[in-house]
Amino acid sequence: MDVRAQLVMVFNLDKCIGCHACSISCKNIWTDRKGAEYMWWNNVETKPGVGYPKKWEDQKVFKGGWVADGKNLRLRAMGKGGTLLSMFFQPNMPKLEDYYEPFDFDYGNLYGAKEGNDQPVAEVFSQISGEKMAEIKGGPNWDDDLSGSPLYAAEDINLDDRKIIEEYDTMFMQYLPRICNHCLNPACVASCPSRAIYKRGEDGVVLVDQNVCKGWRFCTSACPYKKVYFNWNSGKAEKCIFCFPRTETGQCNACAHSCVGRIRYVGVLLYDAEQVEQALLKPDDQLVEAHRAVILDPRDESIRDAARKNGVSEQWLEAAEKSPVYALVKEFGLALPLHPEFRTMPMAYYIPSLSPVLSTLGDTHELAEHGTFPALEKLRAPIGYLASLLAGGNREVVASVLAKLIALRGYMRGRNLNEPADEAILKGAGLDEAAAGRLYRLFTIGGHDERNIIPPQQREEQDPHTRKGASGFGILKKTGRGR
Ligand code: SF4
Ligand code: SF4
């Protein structure tokens, strides 16, 4: 057993309101500079839709990620020979038009225009060439909130039921926030000929060494989530850094901190690195189970000992034990990996959306056995769609998660209305009262410090004497300032 620790983010899709506060806070801190204008390390897509860059999920086009080839995994686009052949040309890489040409407005003209008969306007110009643009043809959220439009929904590869987009009353919509998944088997790292991308040992964050990167862009092609970007000004690759300067001091990521819907959870998972490869050789529909098997119980003493031998500190073990992420991914099995069939073993997980809770229009409000909410198969977000997005096509996995969420809502609703508590509702979905209490806190009233449990990494933060001190980060921690 090779026990390692990983920082992980979970997103509760039911609670995302598509406000983009996360994207803006990330942009302001990390990519508000030359060459990075078109980059959104955190972006929020409307689903069904084509996303950013357009159609990134379609590996027939982009050839990212890994494929299981008998007893081995291989990068979909490249073997060794393939690497040499494509050294100077990346045929599968998204082009600028697949993202969008970044633009701004010439606001100075509103003040400085010469006197004339017409109202001055702020003309649009390209942030790359500096030239005026006759027309804006795309933006980072060009199809924002437009999943009702067949134009975009029809292009979503997860939506195989065309009837849904033909019949307005069956259409549904949800948001999908995305960051780099800091994968356990990162295709970006494996594809880099310069070894500039690496997964660091202490927390599993995947980073690009800017001094080593030669700008080959294999990483951009190989990442199936298209979360490595090329800075046209510096000629280097760039990507989400999981806000490591913040997490190292025990603060959560800027996107999670600013999240208006409070949909994000950040915490530690312990996993067995020796099991990763074998797990990823499983068929698509067994990959969620394989993911869960790789994650280890942080309360098990033998696992804690193995972790200590690998240098995992007591603070990290304590954080792993309290981890909201462990509860949501493994203990209660509610959070699922995004496109596990890309076989990078992503370390960002998603609780699938029940919303809208309403069933399809025109039906007779067919309710679940115990109650208030619609029966599973009557939910507007079709199980097949969610299974394609989050479970390698396994509908049973998604149905089991949704059944738990419905049971939890039904039970807590009863309790909050002072009706007799019916634990049978929970038992039917594999939960109990203690689980309901914990999940209810996490989903609703749990505060920042329950949703984000991040062990500090800097020595002055880890040392209990310094933490009690009257200066520096000790003060910030005590007062909660700086969070
Ligand atoms: S999401 Fe892409 S860029 Fe991020 S670690 Fe995984 S393969 Fe690499
Ligand atoms: S800030 Fe939170 S609620 Fe708003 S779009 Fe981002 S993830 Fe969704």
TrEMBL record:
<keyword id="KW-0004">4Fe-4S</keyword>
<feature type="domain" description="4Fe-4S ferredoxin-type">
    <location>
        <begin position="7"/>
        <end position="36"/>
    </location>
</feature>
<dbReference type="InterPro" id="IPR006547">
    <property type="entry name" value="NO3_Rdtase_bsu"/>
</dbReference>
<dbReference type="InterPro" id="IPR029263">
    <property type="entry name" value="Nitr_red_bet_C"/>
</dbReference>
<keyword id="KW-0560">Oxidoreductase</keyword>
<feature type="region of interest" description="Disordered">
    <location>
        <begin position="454"/>
        <end position="483"/>
    </location>
</feature>
<keyword id="KW-0411">Iron-sulfur</keyword>
<keyword id="KW-0813">Transport</keyword>
<feature type="domain" description="4Fe-4S ferredoxin-type">
    <location>
        <begin position="204"/>
        <end position="233"/>
    </location>
</feature>
<protein>
    <submittedName>
        <fullName>Nitrate reductase subunit beta</fullName>
        <ecNumber>1.7.99.4</ecNumber>
    </submittedName>
</protein>
<feature type="domain" description="4Fe-4S ferredoxin-type">
    <location>
        <begin position="171"/>
        <end position="202"/>
    </location>
</feature>
<keyword id="KW-0479">Metal-binding</keyword>
<dbReference type="InterPro" id="IPR017896">
    <property type="entry name" value="4Fe4S_Fe-S-bd"/>
</dbReference>
<dbReference type="Pfam" id="PF14711">
    <property type="entry name" value="Nitr_red_bet_C"/>
</dbReference>
<dbReference type="Pfam" id="PF13247">
    <property type="entry name" value="Fer4_11"/>
</dbReference>
<keyword id="KW-0249">Electron transport</keyword>
<keyword id="KW-0408">Iron</keyword>
<feature type="compositionally biased region" description="Basic and acidic residues">
    <location>
        <begin position="454"/>
        <end position="466"/>
    </location>
</feature>
<keyword id="KW-0003">3Fe-4S</keyword>
<keyword id="KW-0677">Repeat</keyword>
<dbReference type="GO" id="GO:0016491">
    <property type="term" value="F:oxidoreductase activity"/>
</dbReference>
